[in-house]
């Protein structure tokens, strides 16, 4: 127990360290970007004097260390700076757009887990059957499709040819269908394969055979004994995939014109909106780190046997 | 556990049947796709009959059919030739990018696992920090710094694959370090370097290879995603993602411009995933016990 | 949201229903009185006096008056404010003074013929809103629509201004959404998820032109696309080489394939909608054989390699050039850049460009006031060599400089036109740019959704005509 507590304390202490280093990396990386935000702010048709004025306004004429210091102080006070493009505070922009990304990733996550677990369990129960084959082939295909391509094809079919689904905005549940499926497909495929593999393994375990020998059959058996144990690798893989889901959101949001953080990030990089890039990247890094930690905790809860070193 | 110790219940026949079916199906289908891809890349000029870069503004947007089985693009270039030549770039992409992440990730993982202590925690911690950046976000930043281009996007893709190799190599080393042959080698006075590279690495090679095959599929997808965002190969390179990125502006008008490169990406990624799965099923020690 | 502090023309589109200038363009691009009801200019051509419209109020209730006009211009002219719009009036206006409540006097540095056009694209803002520092986030003007809400990445909402002084529009509410995906625009207007899409890429304009559900709204050709050649580099310092590159471009082919017919081949550095454009100016024909001959004369019978920079959106055009120039032996290397890098690279000094081996820049220029001075001076005058201006290829011809200076101050329209005819001839002959085409602005409306006429102004700005 002492060992475990020490492990957790170490993990928790590492968290701010990772964030501090990440913040420095992000800050430095952003300043390594070629391109001049002052020129962008002043406009393509501006003269040198206006460009210099813009540079002062952005605080980019100060030494690097001072800029970083000011940035860190700001972050600690919840102040992420002002966006060059919208002239709004970055934290306000993020607060406005993060819910859209969160909603989209959550919906596609639920979709991925529902579809992934159902088909994975089915495939394992009916291993070797046509169902199994269909699930496995779809899973491999799902993990192999470029999601933006699928998005484009789906948009063309469902929104333009058939006219069933909307294209613009994010206000109705219908707006979620295409992007959520697009984004959720890859994790669904991964979860399905994982779920099938661990279900098969568990179905082979002694206690399952014992349970069956005791006359326990039916869905209850599988759910009570099988699924619970199969959950461990699923939680692991699901947690690990959260980062890539956030990453995938960048492309999906671009394709679907989704008003979330991913598209904001792409635009911010394109327009050298330093403060916005810093804010979004820092937030995602913090989120991913936190979620990885939560996943570890959950695994610990699900399976106390797992050792920590 | 061997099969004949199992009581005659329904569990065993399932798994045995599935494994023998799927294992070899995966492996052979995957290998076939990849071999075909390599052949297509090697003989692209012969198969295509046309130059993928020659423009002809008199025959733009020809739908698939007569003389141009995949149609022509907005410059009147033959899409079949472009998709075929694209196979060359994709293979190069895979080889370079997987190669880069392997050569950086694996030695670091070996070192971390073998040395332990401060070295281990430092490497692990650095790898965790890198891993905390969602792949595409990291790639966008790296490409933005380096400037868009074929090789620059490869570097970006390689960098974010590194943590996975570090972790894998480290865990394998931890396991293998305690194994009998390592102990024996150490007892015989072998140097750490010798133990690492002569004893541990050869035994770790197979799982690493499986992992590499599986990530190769992701490489193709990610590279095309970067191209799609305008951060990949420069024109007029026949990179599939770049072809799709420009083709998407003609969706509905000339949908085949996105269809064929998209299919090519999907088939390639599928081939690699099947191959990787097949290899894992065949060589993963966990599957031998059943 | 600040009309003086944005750079993208699409932002101008969103702001234009809320802001107004002292003058305005009608749909034929003539200047008409707007917030100023009349004006006069003195004999020197430098002092302009404007009589202001009375009983006009800003959306925040503040009266529109001389003080507001003075405030709007002074904040623009203040270098310390560093507003992006400064470059548009810099070097033109010397001072601006109020004379009583309803008269404003501008003193120009030099006589400037298109001054009234400059005023049409300089919005008057509420001084109170500016003093409160809220203009970057809220729009407070005098226009027919009031600002309601701006959700970044989602939409901007505008409500009809019922206290508007002029002709009231029919449409009660405007909702602006934007996308970086052209195909989404086509799909949304087809599926009636948008009433109007603007600007519509040519390929979709062509596809939709046969669709009965959609009606195209066409403006005039305004933006001229070109490759500015770096005259500080060999072999581009040789006029024959530059002309050869011009002869090597199939402009008709470009208009047909890149613009799907929605534009005109460039025969002049001016766009057809610009004042003084000479439709009869003799541009370059497509003559690859002659181009090769010129290259041989210049000492490059086997052609040469040329690197140009281009931003993402214009990359297809560069790719088409790559194919065309390959036929005259010129190997074109395209360096596609993100917007942020591009804007920095193209404004680099001659030394920096030579060091990077940048032989050309593919870009476009549109004079949003449809005046030839704004189309030519920033691009071709010696004083506009980058980084000071957009003469990014370092072209210099003292005769042209003098001509452009004279034409800018010439108030007699016929004389002014004649000067620009000369300027067009000189620039075409010297060939500092490979002139490609002028695009025609196109928007599309889902038939029957907008209860009033709509037209486009230069810079693809959409205008509701009201009733």
Quick description:
The complex is a heterotrimer of chains A (309), B (290) and C (467). Chain A has 309 residues and is an all-alpha fold.
Polypeptide structure, described:
The complex is a heterotrimer of chains A (309), B (290) and C (467). With 309 residues, chain A is mainly α. Chain A has 2 domains: 75 residues, no CATH class; 213 residues, Orthogonal Bundle (MetI-like fold), CATH 1.10.3720.10. The radius of gyration of chain A is 24 Å and the shape is flat. The model of chain A has no long low-confidence stretch (mean pLDDT 81). Chain B has 290 residues and is mainly alpha-helical. Chain B has a single domain, classed as MetI-like (MetI-like fold, Orthogonal Bundle). Chain B has 10 helices and no strands. The longest helix of chain B is centred in the middle third of the chain and has 37 residues. The N terminus and C terminus of chain B are likely disordered. Chain C has 16 helices and 18 strands. In chain C, a hairpin with a 5-residue loop joins strand 3 and strand 4. In chain C, helix 8 runs antiparallel to helix 10, helix 14 runs antiparallel to helix 15 and helix 15 packs antiparallel against helix 16. The longest helix of chain C is centred in the C-terminal third of the chain and has 18 residues. The chains are: A mainly alpha (309), B mainly alpha (290), C alpha+beta (467). Chains A and B meet through helix 1, helix 6, helix 7, helix 9 and helix 10 of A and helix 1, helix 4, helix 5, helix 8 and helix 10 of B. Chain B: This is Glutathione transport system permease protein. Chain B: Belongs to the binding-protein-dependent transport system permease family. Chain B: It is found in: Cell membrane.
